[in-house]
Design a protein that fits this description.
33% helix, alpha+beta, eight-stranded mixed sheet, 399 residues, single chain
């Protein structure tokens, strides 16, 4: 069996692995991206693209294509029981991109695939699964199975695990994770946007006493709703829910629409639901970012709550910082590891994780008297000049 060679093997062809491949190809580094899936990207899944990620996209000419399709969210509005508590403006959150962009993940992945194909036409190998890694002083041998079930081998100077929360790369390295599972359960769905025209480009967060409902505009006149579930809502049990279902069950779509209407007064049309998914929340961080010439990025290295929309962006920023290190190491024949990189990225993940957990705490169901106090606190905070700093925090200006 012939062993091919490459400078960098990226395991995982989701948004993070694809972006790392694009960055490496732009630097003239030979790269392969192995992706288990054989199908084209589908589903909206993660949608938020924050200013630091857009800056990183701009470096490889990708920001313009993303922004041509995305909705630009300039404000966030906090509401409760039919009343506006305050507004955050993202206009000063970034000098280059003073907004948060929203775009269905499948479109973002498709744009990344197209950009990778333009820079390295043969880099992406779909239907290819990693099964083994053998580390050496000056290279790593990877073994896998291709889309026809045949064994393949590849010799790479470096391997990057961008293969998600259930990372095969991390398992093969024997790296453990620490963290916790949260009790919070959520359901999200995409509907035709029922909000008033003046709110259709705003992110809305309703923090009423029955639990949070967040919503975000999407291209095509749609809106993503995310609602905290009550503990006894068996219909929306995450364990029974598929991810990014193309044709969700009418009953479950109607249930989410009912939750949104009861808590916000806005009634999405259940027949327009194009995606529905219930999910639990957990926070994990890998005990190590990598071993020798093998590095972890994205959810393989750190998994946080999706509330706040920072997880995918964290992975992109991992890739943006790692790519020049890998390219330079390949060019000069260095080996790594890069402890300063590991410290910075794990620190960023911990910060984002704490912020996501604070967001969750703010949206939990509470007794009426506590809810009234929460509303008063939010009114005060959002009315202060320091709300600008809060907008920068939510837009990941610190990243």
């Amino acid at each position: 069996m012939t062993t091919d060679t490459t400078d960098v093997l990226v395991v995982g062809g989701g948004p993070v692995g694809l972006f790392l491949g694009v960055l490496l190809a732009a630097r003239g580094t030979d790269v392969q991206v192995w992706e288990r899936r054989t199908t084209d990207p589908v589903g909206s899944r993660a949608i938020g693209i924050h200013p630091p990620s857009l800056d990183a996209f701009a470096e490889v000419g990708l920001a313009e294509a993303v922004l041509a399709e995305a909705v630009l969210v300039h404000t966030g509005v906090a509401r409760s029981r039919g009343r506006v508590l305050g507004t955050l403006s993202f206009d000063r959150a970034s000098d280059s991109h003073p907004y948060v962009a929203t775009l269905d993940q499948h479109r973002t992945e498709t744009l990344l695939r197209e950009r990778l194909g333009a820079g390295a036409p043969s880099a992406l190998r779909t239907g290819t699964a990693l099964v083994g890694l053998t580390r050496h002083r000056d290279h790593v041998d990877a073994s896998g199975i291709d889309r026809d079930g045949r064994p393949i081998t590849l010799r790479a100077s470096f391997v990057v695990g961008a293969d998600g929360a259930r990372s095969v790369v991390r398992d093969l390295l024997g790296i453990g994770t620490t963290g916790r599972d949260h009790q919070d359960r959520y359901v999200m769905g995409d509907f035709a946007d029922p909000e008033d025209p003046g709110a259709r480009s705003a992110a809305l967060v309703d923090v009423g006493p029955d639990g949070v409902v967040e919503s975000f505009p999407l291209p095509g006149g749609r809106r993503r709703y995310v609602a905290l579930l009550s503990g006894d809502d068996a219909l929306m049990d995450p364990a029974a829910s598929a991810t990014a279902v193309d044709a969700p069950e009418t009953e479950r779509a109607s249930r989410l629409a009912e939750i949104v209407r009861a808590r916000t007064g806005v009634a999405p049309d259940a027949t327009t639901c194009s995606m529905l998914s219930a999910f639990g929340v957990r926070r994990r961080i890998a005990d190590r970012v990598g071993v020798g010439r093998v590095v972890l990025v994205g959810d393989a290295a750190h998994e946080i709550s999706p509330i706040g929309g920072q997880g995918m962006n964290l992975g992109w920023l991992d890739a943006a910082e790692l790519a020049p290190l890998l390219a330079d190491a390949v060019r000069i024949g260095a080996a790594g590891p890069w402890p300063a990189y590991a410290r910075r990225r794990q620190a960023a993940a911990r910060r984002a994780g704490r912020q996501a957990e604070a967001n969750m705490a703010l949206g939990r169901a509470v007794p009426d008297v506590v809810g009234i106090g929460r509303e008063a606190l939010l009114r005060s905070v959002l009315a202060l000049p320091t709300a600008r700093a809060l907008a920068r925090l939510y837009a990941m200006a610190w990243a």
